[in-house]
């Protein structure tokens, strides 16, 4: 009696059972007992570890236990339910039913039907539960069976706190006596009706059609608890099963955000952190918590500390390590990751090659690597084991193909990405306006608004507002899908879908842009849509596309630029340009090539001065940078000659795409070559290779190379210590000015590189710089080497074209 009036989730079922009609009065389904009695399921897992994923085992164990109590309980009509052998007195039932009848009105609950055939779409459904009805009976009827004992119930789905479960029919062929056998023979029954989507969501085998509903009795109240489950909820659950989906959901930007390719800095990372995403991924796929194993290299010695990530904090809990700072050296951190199934089979192991200055960075980067690899599989679950293995091997991931494919066997039928991968979506609808020549490959994009000249570049944070609609072709019908007032993402790490990032890098602050895209997988659209049902009907009836409208609100520049602007007046980059201009003028050069011209800041400024330059060329490896360069140079070159415009001789401007470590004879023997703040963006070997190629093959008369002076960083960091990194133990450690820098040299290192190079190729070299002073420690902020060729003759070179000509302007066209 006491139990019957308590708030135990099961007692609600007992009370409801007492209201059932006729012979079923007081009979409680075994599946309900097995599901809602936590003690029972724990005991069952002890008895048989497969009980976790096989509900039949739990049922059979409960049934066997019940048969030993046959003096107390009995089963009705050989159904899978139990009843007291001695029914309760009618007065008692009345008292309980009275209590219950406070809930007088009938309830309507939105639920979802997941058909067993993946060909059939998932659909919404409304359950009506009358005031004295038993909700499991109502679900049973929807499933086409007459009463509750034929309904099986899954474990909870989604968030741990939710009470969303799947309801499905007990497999027909199962009889009581079959279940009471000590070993349920699963193989014996028909797996043809296996419901892939429902099995995938619940991590256990579900047969036939299933109903997804959030309803039941809780510890909190004796009333029936219920929540509507919409189509959108269902699709969000599916998206939540994907590594990139967890990220997209954490940013509330399903159609705009993409799991970034790199963990650059903590401050630039938006949304859930990689480690957290990996933990969520493992939880929803019912794997054990991933194991993170950090190690520190201290002059060869390597100590390990294990962390099982049990804490639910956001930024990666600090790992306490046995190697302190006592030795005074900075440790190199690496973080290994292992993922096990619930039954402790090793599914995946990642051994990183790179090491990091910070322990949290090592952990986050490793988690991200694993996630990105998993994501390639989830977006293309049809990929062969060979492809999967070779991509894993490249990254340093070991996995067991057998366990892996068994664990994720349903992906193939559930996540149908195939060729509709977001990234590969082709722009359609040609409506290009206002683009300088043909450099911009995204022709189907229109950008409007004045050019404010504040443009995002790699490493900067772009803040945009956007709105995405589903439109039927011909634009007759339009359904709003997703929007954001302020969506911030880091440029260069693919933190937004590639097309959005490509468009934003073409824009300047204040401008807006419109473009269309082919549809991504439907689950993304339906998970994002406010009204999934309306969207689903539109999608199924017409050919649709997605229309994006984006406005660039703000650009936060990378740390390097922020420091340079805050500390120097004019800014350090302006000082570099002025330094170069001064040398160009003094040398009376007629031709200039800017190696690593980026978005053309030097070329652009040069046009503001009067110089003797006739021919100007820029080379860069980044197509995006070159596109921006063309965009700013184009209007400047075509402006009408008026009094304010300095007179210059410029006849042609060329932009080439290629690596400056390769030679191209079209740029041989120029009067002056510049290479400002570029070498530190290459690996050190490549920087040396560039040195060789430029002096040996390109042979400019003068070459100006600038790069940060590492020794100056302490000053930069002091002045901006309140800035970027909020991590106290980071403050005293020297670090690079920009996360894209592969190295930064001290004065001695730079002098050594330049002097040695000059000597070998018959050049003189002198050293200078901008920002600070040569004779005041720690020297210039940007150190500069000026190389001058000793011998003035030029040789004939063979034609060798290794660069792609991207854009060309010549005064003849004017
Ligand atoms: N010189 C410009 C840009 C500096 S940023 C300025 O002073 O503003 C560094 C540039 O070097 C980037 O645009 C990057 O794309 C380019 N870069 C890096 N490695 C390169 C390579 N191997 N070949 C050509 N360009 C390279
Ligand atoms: Mg740089």
UniProtKB/TrEMBL annotation:
Domain HEN1 double-stranded RNA binding: 243-378
Cofactor(s) the protein needs: Mg(2+)
A cellular-component GO term for this protein: nucleus
GO biological process per UniProt: alkaloid metabolic process; RNA methylation; siRNA processing
One example GO MF annotation: small RNA 2'-O-methyltransferase activity
Ranges in a coiled coil: none
UniProt keyword annotations, A-Z: Magnesium, Metal-binding, Methyltransferase, RNA-binding, RNA-mediated gene silencing, S-adenosyl-L-methionine, Transferase
Region Disordered: start-end pairs: 718-738
Record's protein name: Small RNA 2'-O-methyltransferase
Record-annotated Small RNA 2'-O-methyltransferase Hen1 La-motif C-terminal domain positions: 108-241
Reactions performed catalytically: small RNA 3'-end nucleotide + S-adenosyl-L-methionine = small RNA 3'-end 2'-O-methylnucleotide + S-adenosyl-L-homocysteine + H(+)
UniProt EC number: 2.1.1.386
Protein family (similarity comment): Belongs to the methyltransferase superfamily. HEN1 family.
InterPro entries assigned to the protein according to its UniProt record, in alphabetical order: Hen1 (IPR026610), HEN1_dsRBD2 (IPR040870), Hen1_Lam_C (IPR040813), Methyltransf_11 (IPR013216), PPIase_dom_sf (IPR046357), SAM-dependent_MTases_sf (IPR029063)
Methyltransferase type domain residues: 593-689
């Amino acid at each position: 009696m006491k139990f019957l009036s308590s708030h135990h989730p099961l007692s609600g079922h007992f009370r409801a059972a007492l209201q059932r009609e006729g012979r079923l009065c007081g009979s409680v389904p075994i599946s309900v007992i097995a599901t809602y009695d936590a003690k029972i399921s724990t005991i069952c897992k002890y008895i048989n570890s497969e009980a976790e994923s096989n509900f039949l085992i739990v049922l059979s164990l409960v049934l066997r236990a019940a048969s030993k109590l046959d003096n107390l309980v009995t089963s009705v009509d050989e159904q899978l339910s139990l009843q007291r052998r001695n029914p309760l007195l009618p007065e008692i039932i009345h008292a309980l039913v009275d209590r219950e009848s406070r809930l007088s009105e009938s309830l309507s609950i939105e639920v979802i039907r997941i058909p067993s055939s993946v060909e059939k779409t998932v659909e919404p459904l409304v359950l009506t539960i009358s005031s004295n009805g038993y909700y499991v009976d109502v679900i049973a009827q929807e499933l086409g069976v007459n009463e509750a004992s034929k309904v099986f119930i899954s474990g909870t789905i989604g968030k741990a706190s939710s009470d969303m479960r799947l309801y499905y029919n007990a497999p027909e062929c199962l009889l009581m006596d079959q279940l009471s056998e000590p070993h349920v023979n699963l193989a014996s029954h028909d797996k043809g009706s296996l419901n892939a989507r429902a099995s995938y969501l619940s991590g256990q085998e579900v047969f036939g059609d299933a109903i997804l509903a959030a309803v039941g009795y809780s510890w909190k109240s004796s009333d029936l608890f219920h929540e509507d489950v919409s189509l959108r909820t269902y699709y969000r659950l599916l998206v939540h099963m994907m590594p990139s989906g967890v990220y997209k959901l954490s940013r509330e930007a399903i159609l705009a955000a993409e799991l970034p390719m790199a963990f650059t800095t903590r401050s630039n990372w938006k949304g859930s952190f990689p480690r957290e995403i990996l933990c969520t991924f493992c939880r929803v796929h019912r794997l054990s918590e991933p194991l993170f194993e950090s190690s520190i290299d201290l002059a060869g010695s390597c100590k390990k500390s294990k962390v099982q990530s049990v804490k639910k904090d956001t930024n990666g809990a600090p790992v306490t390590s046995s190697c302190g700072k006592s030795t005074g050296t900075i440790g190199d951190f690496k973080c290994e990751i292992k993922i096990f199934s619930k039954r402790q089979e090793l599914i995946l192991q990642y051994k990183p090659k790179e090491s990091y200055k910070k322990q949290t960075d090592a952990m986050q980067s490793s988690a991200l690597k694993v996630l990105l690899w998993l994501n390639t599989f989830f977006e293309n679950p049809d990929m062969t084991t060979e492809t999967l293995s070779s991509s894993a091997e490249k990254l340093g991931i070991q996995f067991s193909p057998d366990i892996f494919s068994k664990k994720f066997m349903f992906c193939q039928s559930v996540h149908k990405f195939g060729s509709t991968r977001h990234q590969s979506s082709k722009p359609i609808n040609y409506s290009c306006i206002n683009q300088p020549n043909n450099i911009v490959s995204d022709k189907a994009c229109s950008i409007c608004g004045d050019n404010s000249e504040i443009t995002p570049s790699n490493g900067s944070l772009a803040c945009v507002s956007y709105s995405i609609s589903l439109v039927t072709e011909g634009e007759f019908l339009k359904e709003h899908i997703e929007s954001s007032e302020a969506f911030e993402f880091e440029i260069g790490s693919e933190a937004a879908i590639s097309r959005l990032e490509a468009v934003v890098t073409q824009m300047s602050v204040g401008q807006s842009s419109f473009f269309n895209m082919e549809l991504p997988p439907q689950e993304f659209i339906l998970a994002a849509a406010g009204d999934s049902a309306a969207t689903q009907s539109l999608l199924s009836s017409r050919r649709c596309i997605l229309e994006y409208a984006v406005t660039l609100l703000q650009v936060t520049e990378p740390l390097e630029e922020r420091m340079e602007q805050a500390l120097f007046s004019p800014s350090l980059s302006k000082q570099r340009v002025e330094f170069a201009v001064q040398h160009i003028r003094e040398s009376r050069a007629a031709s200039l090539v800017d190696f690593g011209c980026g978005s053309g800041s030097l070329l652009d400024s040069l046009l503001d001065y009067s110089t003797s330059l006739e021919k100007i060329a820029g080379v860069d490896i980044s197509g995006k940078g070159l596109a921006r360069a063309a965009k700013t140079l184009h209007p400047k070159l075509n402006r009408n000659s008026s009094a304010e415009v300095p007179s210059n001789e410029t006849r042609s401007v060329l932009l080439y795409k290629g690596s400056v470590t390769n030679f191209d004879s079209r740029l041989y023997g120029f009067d002056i070559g510049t290479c400002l703040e570029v070498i530190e963006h290459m690996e050190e070997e490549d920087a040396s290779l560039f040195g060789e190629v430029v002096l040996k093959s390109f042979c400019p008369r003068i070459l100006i190379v600038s790069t940060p002076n590492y020794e100056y960083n302490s000053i930069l960091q002091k002045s901006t210590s309140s800035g970027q990194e909020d991590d106290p133990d980071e403050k005293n450690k020297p670090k690079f000015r920009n996360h894209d820098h592969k190295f930064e040299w001290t004065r001695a290192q730079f002098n050594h590189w330049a002097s040695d190079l000059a000597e070998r190729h018959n050049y003189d070299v002198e050293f200078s710089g901008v920002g600070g002073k040569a004779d005041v420690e720690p020297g210039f902020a940007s150190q500069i080497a000026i190389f001058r060729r000793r011998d003035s003759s030029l040789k004939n070179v063979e034609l060798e074209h290794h660069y792609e000509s991207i854009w060309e302007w010549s005064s003849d066209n004017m």
